[in-house]
Amino acid sequence: MTTVVLLLIVLQSVMSQNLYELLEINKEANEADVKRAFRKLSLKYHPDKNPGSEEAADKFKQINRAYEILTDKDKRQVYDQQGLEGLERLERGGDNRQKGPNAKAEVHVSLEDLYLGTTRDMSITRNVYCPKCRGTGAKDGKTKQCPKCKGQGITMQKVQVGFGMQMQMQVQCDQCGGRGQVNQANCGHCRGRKVVNDVKSLNIVIEKGMKDGDEIVFQKEAEQIPDMIPGDVIFTVKQSSHNRFKRVGDNLFYDLKISLEEALLGFSKRITHLDGHLVEVSSKSDEVIQPFSWKVITGEGMPKRNMYSEFGDLHVKMIIEFPKTLNEKQKQLIDQILQA
Ligand SMILES: [Zn+2]
Ligand SMILES: [Zn+2]
């Protein structure tokens, strides 16, 4: 009987152990701090260094667990705000937190940017969990039993249900929001708001071959709202129209102006591509170019996304510029030629 009671007490102490105190760090510790503390303590309590010591083995296990939680962004957030019980709920597969709203913005690029690929730095301003209290709003993260509901999270309320009839109903405690715990004192940094304003720079990678309307997603980088999974920051690619090329899928379209003489007698021209390289377009021998006919140059379109060595095609439309007027002599000569 006594062993059972003892075991329960030990379990209780493990459960309520503060992971930050366990690793001898404060709540503001970043990932590098956590790793450093873990390395130091895991050396100290390693079973190889403490043969036969059950206490050291137990401590070693706890340190490992604390390390696992505090170096996982999601787990740490849930632990900070909902404690170990909340975390165990999450680990049983029941993250009952709702996802917060996504933040959306456009990133404007040129066709050249999409041909070559580029990057953009964008800074976003949003609320994040207060680094001092880690989103609890409580000074030093310390809470106490809610005085209104005595830690129950619910209170009884009398409601009128009919003529002269009353009923008692359970309602969520409005002082602690059903948690049963309130702050001992408010965090001085965020004044108990749980969140503070923060600016973050995001590096947006525009991959070669991306298209207008493609999305670049930064998962869980949107506003951090207590008890919610942060939404995503989503950038939508917006391509400005190009003065020479038109894009459809992975193909490019180009209008090439040639003179009537070139259409009849042959031509060779060069088109300056999006990265400056030259693409030759020419007529075959004895070919007469028909108005609005196409020449397709394979492999000179846009790069295919995720397959940079493959390209779409370049479709060149022949725009023949006819002379505006002809004099009598020209007319006679053309007449002679065409009659022949
Ligand atoms: Zn309460
Ligand atoms: Zn705070």
TrEMBL record:
Gene Ontology molecular function, alphabetical: ATP binding; Hsp70 protein binding; unfolded protein binding; zinc ion binding
Organism superkingdom: Eukaryota
CR-type domain residues: 117-199
Signal sequence residues: 1-16
Record-linked InterPro entries: DnaJ (IPR012724), DnaJ_C (IPR002939), DnaJ_domain (IPR001623), DnaJ_domain_CS (IPR018253), DNJA1/2-like (IPR044713), HSP40/DnaJ_pept-bd (IPR008971), HSP_DnaJ_Cys-rich_dom (IPR001305), HSP_DnaJ_Cys-rich_dom_sf (IPR036410)
Zinc finger (CR-type): 117-199
Stretches assigned to the J domain: 18-83
UniProtKB keywords: Metal-binding, Repeat, Signal, Stress response, Zinc, Zinc-finger
Pfam family, one: DnaJ_C
GO BP term, pick one: response to heat
Xref: SUPFAM superfamilies: Chaperone J-domain, DnaJ/Hsp40 cysteine-rich domain, HSP40/DnaJ peptide-binding domain
Keyword field contains Ribonucleoprotein: no
Annotated protein name in UniProt: Heat shock protein family protein
Source species: Stylonychia lemnae
